[in-house]
Predict the structure of Translation machinery-associated protein 16.
Amino acid sequence: MGGKKITARSLKGKSTAPTHPNSRRAAQVARINHRTSKLQAAKSVRSRAGQAHVDRVSTLILLLPPDLDYVPDMPFLHSFLQDSFLKRHDDEIARLGAERRKGRPMAKREEELRELRDREQREYSAGIEIPDLMNEHNVAKLRQWNGDRQALGQFRFVRVSGDDQEQYVTTREGLMKELALERQEREAAAMAE
């Protein structure tokens, strides 16, 4: 199917007379509307996923103790994730469960929090992508970050797993100048060996 893509704008200038439901023009309008709704649905899915990623990063930074410049080692990182990040909703879940009368169904908020906690626990077990909290430059820049989703490309991200606690795989290097210098130093050291 070649030819020029028909858009709402290109059809708008044509005749304004009512169209027959089975006409070629009606089919074109239907295709345009379907394409538009598909694109809007994909955009909203991307937006929700991006916002969830921003929320995770900002939550991790807010939970990180302010006296730490960076996480010193892997055992501390995993204990931080297990004790602070994954259990951050436990108090509210317990409170909502205590407020509920016996035999009554869970409130929507309690159900959502339980699902979020279980999903994050499964993701942590399989491998969760988080900002590199073991890098001092990365943590310092994250503390200055204003929550802009566009700026996430500046930071280094790693994947850690609860099942394999030695796993620490860099998933995104980050575009910060300090991170690029570290990367060049690592590559130079690897070439020297």
